[in-house]
Amino acid sequence: MANKRRRPKDVTQLHGHRVVTGPELRATFAEDQQAHKSRFRRRLFHGIVLVLLVGLIAAGAVGAWAIMNGVVKVPSAIASKAPTSLCPATTFDYVPNETVTLNVFNATSSGGLAGTVADQFTARGYKVASVDNSNTAYSGVGVVVSGVKGQAAAFNIQRNVAGTDYFEDNREDESVDVVLTPGFEGLVEPQLVDQTPGMLQCPRENLRVADNSKWPIIPTLPAGQ
Length: 225
Prior knowledge:
- The chain is an alpha/beta fold.
- It is built from five helices and seven strands, in the order ββααβαββαββα.
- The chain has helices at residues 22-68, 75-78, 113-123, 151-160, 203-206; strands at 13-14, 17-18, 101-106, 127-133, 142-146, 165-168, 176-180.
C-alpha cells in the first residue's frame, strides 16, 4: 500500500500554539508605541493646563493684594485726575457786601498788595478785619477760605475776585479769608459783579490748579490765623 503523503507542516503552529510572525510582532510594538505617545501627549496637556490654572490663581491673589494695599488702582479710581469732590453742592444767594467780614492776605511778590486790595473791598462796603502777608504753594488767581457758616460770604467774594478757588476749613465763625496769589490781576469792576445765585467754585471741579499732583492745596496762613 502506497505511503500516504504527509501534509505540509504549518509553520504558524508549534506544538499546538500559534507562532507570532515578525510583521505581527512589529505591528504590535508599533501600536504600543503609538498608545504610549498618546498617553504622554494627554499627560503633557493636563500638566500645561494645571500650570496655567495655578499661575492664574497666583496672579489673581497678587492682584487682589495689590489693589487692597493701593499698589494698583483700578481704572474707575484713576479715570479722573481729580479726587472725589468735597466742594459744597449748595446754591447760594449773593449776600450783601456789608454782611461779609474779610481777611486779606498777600502771597505774591508785590509789596503792599494786600493793603491796596483791602482798601478796595472797604470801599465796596466789606468789613476788613485783617491785612497781612501769607505763604502758599497754590498756583492760580487766588484762594478763598471759610468755614461752613461762611460759605455764602465766600460765594460773594468769589464773584468779586473772578477765578479764585474755594477751600473749607474748620473755623466756626462766618469770616472769610482771601489769599491773593501770583495770578491775581484785580477785582471785578463793581458794576460787572454777577449777583445771581450760584455755587462755590473749587479746584476739583474747574481744574484751575496748575499742578494736579498737589491737590488739594490748602493755603498756608500766618501763625495764629
